[in-house]
Amino acid sequence: SDVSRYLGALSPEGQYCIRIRDNSGEQSAMTSPVYNLSTYNTVNVQFMFRADGMEAGEDFWLQYYNGSTWTTAATFIAGTNFVNNQVYTATITITGALSNVSRFKFQCDASENDDNINIDAVVITASAASGLISNGMTITEVAGLNTISEQHLEGITLYPNPVEDIVKIISSAEII
Questions:
Q1: Which terminus has fewer CB within 10 Å in the chain: N or C?
Q2: Model-level pTM?
Q3: Could you give the 3-state DSSP secondary structure of residue 128?
Q4: Do residues 6 and 19 make contact, with C-beta atoms less than 8 angstroms apart?
């Protein structure tokens, strides 16, 4: 129950996202499938998130699995890196020798069930280019997505969901 597909207004990008909460170890984690990244030396993990109910100092992590151990690639701390009810886009860059059984895991490390992280739009890209920056993290607040109003969602249809290449938007009002 600490990880679920969430449907509602707290989804950063649309209607659905993955909600992680609490701090019950693997039960509070969203884990990727296995990727063969052995021919690459840089991987970027980009995603959107919105926190809800996180107290200052509570955190969540992005971890990388190299085939034998999990390593924390980034820690996101409430009150330091983000505040509740705002949408952020984060990009984490991992460089070095990557594994043929690479995995990624988002894990919540909060204190209770009402500490929620809503994760959406995860994109993982790899590169064999050299001379790129070393491990890094950027977090950017996404303007215009921080106020949730069901009124603004009436009369709008987005499909297909999930989208692969093209999203269609239908609105009963003019789209601005």
A1: C
A2: 0.75
A3: coil
A4: yes
Tally the residues of the chain.
Answer: 176
Sign of CA dihedral 36, 62, 18, 111: positive
Residues of the chain where predicted confidence (pLDDT) is lower than 70: 130-137, 143-156, 158-159, 161-163, 175-176
Strands 42-52 and 29-31: unpaired
Query: What is residue 166's predicted lDDT score, i.e. its pLDDT?
Result: 76
- Count Cβ atoms below 10 Å from residue 26 Cβ, excluding itself: 10
CB 83 within 8 A of CB 114: no
SS3 content of the chain, % helix, strand, coil (to 5): 5, 50, 45
- In this structure, are residues 120 and 12 in contact, taking their beta carbons and an 8 Å threshold? yes
**In angstroms, how far is CA 52 from the centroid of its own chain?**
14
Residue 121, token pair as written in the block: 């739009």
Nearest in space to 21 (alpha carbons), one of 13, 37, 10, 32:
10
